[in-house]
Amino acid sequence: MIVYEYPLNESIRTMLRLEHLFDRLGQLIERDAPVDHHHALATIFEIMDVGSRADLKSDLLKELERHRQHLLGYRGNPAISEAALEATLARIDGAFARLNQVSGKAGAALTANEWLMSIRSRISIPGGTCEFDLPAYYAWQQLDATRRRSDLLQWVGTLMPLAEALQVLLGLLRDSGAPQQVVAVGGQYSQSLPAGRVYQLMRVRIKKALQLVPEISGHRLMMLVRLMRQEADGRLRPSDADCSFELTLCA
User: Fold this and answer.
1) In CATH, what number is assigned to the domain containing residue 74?
2) C-alpha distances in angstroms, 106 versus 109, 155, 167, 215?
3) Which of 35, 108, 149, 213 has its CA 20 to 30 A from that of 141?
4) Of the residues 128, 150, 172, which one is the last residue of a structural domain?
5) pTM: predicted TM-score of the whole model, two decimal places
6) Is residue 2 part of a domain?
7) What does the pLDDT average to over 59-70?
């Protein structure tokens, strides 16, 4: 099964982009090649760019508190595992405390490192990090992989409270939805969203063997999924076949 996710507001859109970048960063750091660590460093700078939104930290803290208050209402409920509930609340409290201790925007502590900022200023220029442009950076790339990885982990450490908060929040959001099996008649499926309920994320799961790509659009009142088939030239063309898939709306 392939899972496609569609954010229904700008805040969730930012969170999903950051999650994608942190996932890529984790994979690149574990590798040994200098080119992988170059792209890991570029990803750190991308995280700083995406996380530079002034209200991001406050939004995450508010969302963590909202989930905390919601879950507190389940205490004493015999249908809820008390141990699981307390473990989840502890994760929320830990993520909230660590993120709240971070001052400034994502990666603000790294901006004091002139060497890193010299790389950041040139990394978006095609070929801008050649050895004749940044000889000190080229020398760093020749270091042992263990040393490079240690440096990367040190720099990433300043971003980990953000990564932890995202992991907790998106995990809670995804768990809030109940999957339902629906059918796209003639390759299209639409659904009105109930008034009074604010959904934040739409998840579509499609069997890989079907080789279909969903084009998703939606807002607080309506959602639409069009199933497309990718041709040999890479173009997407509408599928007119009836097809079932799994839909989850998360609040």
Assistant:
1) 1.10.3900.10
2) 8, 12, 15, 32
3) 108
4) 172
5) 0.91
6) no
7) 93
